[in-house]
Model the fold of this input.
Amino acid sequence: MTLKTEAVGKEWPATTYEVGKEKIREYATVIGLDNPVHLDREAARAAGYRDVVAPPMFCVVYSAPALAPAMFDPEVGMNFAAMVHGGQEFEWGEPACSGDEITTTAKCLEIYEKDGKGFYVFETVSANGDGDQVVRGTWTNIVRGV
Amino acid sequence: MAELNVGDEIPELRVTPDKYLPHRYAGASGDFNPIHIDPEFAKAVGLPNTILHGLYMMGLVARAGTEAAGGDPKSLKRLSVQFRGMGAPETEIVVSGEVKSVEDGKATIDVVAAQGENQTIRNAEADVQL
Done:
């Protein structure tokens, strides 16, 4: 079977997410991060941040919603029953702090077949209200038996 | 500021996620895929039981990389991982790593997350600012 590749290059509408202090605390606690810059406003400011700062991997909280419509797009046509999250890369820029409104766009970078598996590679780019890039994510999903 | 040299091993991070950790991670992250929180669903799709979120384990890898660089969250500049073996709750995760290169105040660390012999995250590379 040949993979459908017409979705390569497609972009989906942007999503926005406002980062909140208690959501950062919830995430940091689950990961076991006890650095007070994630939990305490004064500690964060003393360390040079505008406000409580999100741990780097908190980026999944604000960037994944932009990816959801891409994953379910019939033009992409991923077979979820046979899909695994194969790889992930994030490259961080400006830190995300409580109060930041972050806008994320998603794009399909590549769809290709290798060793009988389908590789679906998406990119998300997230920027804060000043237009500074906060993170760029590359999400690789692998579908067996295409 | 942390000092890292090529060949240094970073401090090992050992975490044993309890039975309900995937529920808390689902709430914190917004990823409620039932393979992580519903044993019946997980078994129905051929898994041995519920499995850990890959991005939770990547969060632990990010934590280990950040701590190796001295603890400031903005020191982690890039993290790239491959998810391979499935992670299970109630089993110890060991995150270990070795400094591969140091250049212009930036170090690249090779990182692995494993449960026993099962490497759940491999070929991970963390770039940190020193």
Observations:
- Chain B has one domain: 13-129.
- Chain B touches chain A through 31 residues (CB under 8 Å).
- The first helix of chain B runs from residue 21 to 29.
- Strands of chain B lie at 13-15, 76-83, 93-103, 106-115, 118-129.
